[in-house]
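Cross-check.
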Amino acid sequence: MQRDNQQSDNSALDVYFLIQREEKIGHKDIDHYLPFFYFLEQAENLQFQAKGIIVGAKNRFIDSQDKRTHFLCSQSHVTVEYLYSNPVWIDALEYVAIKSVFWGRPARLMLKVFSPRRKSKNNELNIWKEKLGHDYLKSKSPLILALHLNSRVIPVINIFRALNKNAKWAVIPHGTSICDNAMVMASDMGLTNEIKVQNMFQYVDYFVRTSEREKDDAIAEGIDPDKVVVIGSPRFCKEWLNIKTENCLDGPMPECGKGKVKILFLIPKRHINIFTEELIRTIDFISRYDDIELILNRSSRNYPPLSDEILKRQNVHDYLISTDYSTSSLIEWADLVFHSATGILFESFMRNKITVFPRYLTSNTLISEIYDAGITLKNRDELRNLCIQATTSLTELQHQYFTRYGENNARYIEDFVSGGKGSVPNKIISVVEKIRSDFSVPV
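Predicted model, tokenized:
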């Protein structure tokens, strides 16, 4: 990472950001980093250079032709590199381990035995030292960015700090709160409601959150309040959605459903508290309306186990997340968006789609439900009434929706997308400028 000639060591901020989930479908980490760095590029008085390091090998995990990846790398102050260079057979094995349902576990076991980097943990420090380079070792203002605070990232942060004692670490948002209850996952079976103090907070210098609610939750879990700052949600703010549209980052929209009511159903993930049988019945029910064109968007082909009878209907289209179309382009295509606990629901609200939460599908309580934002369906009778309304007059349904829910939607967006008053880009720039000034304060 090389600085501009006009920037001096005393003024430029050296940013290093970790991409740890690039094997996940949809380029999730890049989706969150991209708006953050785009808005930093717009700051007139902030001098910085940023190097992104993909914690993996240069293989088929990342699609260099993806528009979002290309757009990130095209930013004038940003470069992206891989941490490892593996033999081709290791790359292939890692690809199988992540992509294959049947061979995935055997491939992961083989990686533990044969992968060169897994054999030599003592060499990890030298690998990072070489990848970070001379600029990092000598920097007086190295800022580390990560999207996660967990046991996987802490060892990496410790290496960064061992190589440069000046390093500061900021955790920036990888999503925002969507559930009001605490026992969100199917595996959450704790018998007490005591708040667990997060010991990992001690490693963090700055904890950047999307909302005041998330800030309060972090403080309750034990973080120093002075470490927490709220910026809103960069990925879903109106400024970023406009930039995505202008640069065609979401890709093409499907052409199906012309002249019909278009419904996108965001299929909830396997581990969320979902009543699967009723979910299947709901999809079956919606797809029985000939005037409804239904797109299913899900993270795995084998969940939920929909019958061939449903999937072979001419008005049903089953897409894997970000494989056929981006989720954003599907939301733009839709007239109505159904969800049952997914962070992407904010984009539905921001794009002024009729946003529908079938309450009866889950044991979770969504925050949108508390705000009375979007339509909440209590049972299948209400689903039927909604489908009848949509197929009778979509225009009238849209009018009723925005008359009934417009103000509530706006409050919800302000609190969880904008992070309160003010623009998200300005908040991003302000927090990074504050961090930059902290490097100037003698320790």
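The two ends are 26 Å apart (CA to CA). The longest helix spans residues 394-416. Passed to J.P. for a second look.
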